[in-house]
Write a sequence for this structure.
């Protein structure tokens, strides 16, 4: 599903996701339990040291997490509008800094699920702008590891 954007065409939860729209998140791939997204770091996403603000990297990883947790279309026998999957808790480890103009790619994968709970790993990579991507493979250096714990709840 390369080339999909936050217009809502890629996934229904992006239709009203103004944070992901502001960040310029682009959806590269979606599947049950998987999402790959990318964005370019802008000046207004930097901290006082001139590197990506940790909150921007976290928010970017959180978008990939949400997309991997929630199917774009309801599964057979599941009512799509009655339940949503949200974060029950997350941990992030920042490994390297990222800088203005670099392209971030987040790859989210479900590791386990049991009942209403799930466990997801999200790797976030940074590459210099203009680097020629090799298909959907993440480019650049691993800058953060994000682990999310999900819970499916009733929509209120």
């Amino acid at each position: 599903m390369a080339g999909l954007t936050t217009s809502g065409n890629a996934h229904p939860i992006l239709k009203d996701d103004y944070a992901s729209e502001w960040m310029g998140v682009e959806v590269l791939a979606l599947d049950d339990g998987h999402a790959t997204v990318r964005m370019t770091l802008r000046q207004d996403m930097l901290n006082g040291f001139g590197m990506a603000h940790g909150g921007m990297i976290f928010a970017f990883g959180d978008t990939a997490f949400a997309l991997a947790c929630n199917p774009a279309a309801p599964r057979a026998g599941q009512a799509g509008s009655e339940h949503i999957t949200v974060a029950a808790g997350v941990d992030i480890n920042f490994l390297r800094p990222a800088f203005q103009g670099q392209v971030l790619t987040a790859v989210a994968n479900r590791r386990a699920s049991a009942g209403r709970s799930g466990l997801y790993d999200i790797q976030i990579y940074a590459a210099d702008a203009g680097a020629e991507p090799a298909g959907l493979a993440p480019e650049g250096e691993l800058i953060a590891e994000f682990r999310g714990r999900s819970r499916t709840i009733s929509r209120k």
